[in-house]
Design a protein that fits this description.
The protein is 51% helix and 12% strand. It is α+β, with helices and mostly antiparallel strands. It folds into three domains: 3-154, no CATH class; 157-211, Orthogonal Bundle (Arc Repressor Mutant, subunit A), CATH 1.10.10; 230-349, no CATH class. A hairpin with a 2-residue loop joins strand 7 and strand 8. The model is unreliable at 16-20, 48-60 and 317-338 (pLDDT under 50).
Amino acid sequence: VPAAIYYAFRQGEVDESGFSVKGWATFLQAIVDAGYSIGATWPVRTELVGNLKKNKNALATSVVMACRPRAADAETISRIEFIRALRRELPAALKEMHRASIAPVDIPQASIGPGIAIFSRYASVIERDDSPMSVKTALQIINEELDQYLSSQEGDFDPETRFAVTWFTQHGYEKGLFGDADNLARARGISVDDVRHAGIVESSAGRVRIYKREDLEDDWNPETDRHLTIWECCQYLVRQHQLDGLSHETALLLKKVGSDKAEAVKDLAYVLYEISDKRRQDRQEATTYNALVTDWTELTRQAACCGDPRHRRRWPDQAGHLRGDGTWQKARANMCLKEWSCSRRRSSRS
């Protein structure tokens, strides 16, 4: 008989990789040992918490698991066969999660679904020493494959963006040696000057650093930028979202970026979240990318309406005050607020 099982997290239960040190793995192990296969896991926000506003990356309060009894004739596979199955099936599942704009902070838990589904559909996975693989080990392998998938996405970016991602991983927004930057750029078939002309870095006195968002141009327009990169589009969108949140201005900027680059920008936000959160341990930086992706679905919807004056809306800021282009009458302010609230609830349920 199929079953839906909910698991509620305590924040102290989660380690730096996004997985529980003991409780979560023990709970999953009990389900597998009981003869169930786990078909999917999905993060569910059962409480409204203000962690993102407090610059805390908190997992969803609960995870729901769809389970069914494991097939009686389930096979036994080796560790290497399990890894091959992950590499074959996990990328498609992760792409679907990205298309659904699942918040980066929830991706580690959501990705458990397709990963543990592979693990639990077999009678057992055998280690090199012929012992059965534990769920805890399986979760570690799934997490490693998730990291590899995110790293592989960098190959789809333009050379300047790939340079910036690697440089950001190593140096953040601090200065580094020009010689190191030159070697990195040459390996990508470009020069440091190419990256500088793209508006990504500044180079002087033998040092190179990535521009912080507060250093970016105030009047930047992606429609007139002759050297447009995914890195620029992402950073300017993050800055606009930090300033105005889910607003007409942010949606308009996304529209100007264009649908041909929008998905790559969102993919970059996922990559930069992982780098900031796991490698650089910069939770405040990670939160900015998480916030942008969380609002992505609604921003995309609003971007599609930006050309129609009838859809020029005013959105409430974090303090609850309406802001925007001022074309709506005060009599419709309450309608706008209710519509925004409903759309946010629909977005959170999706």
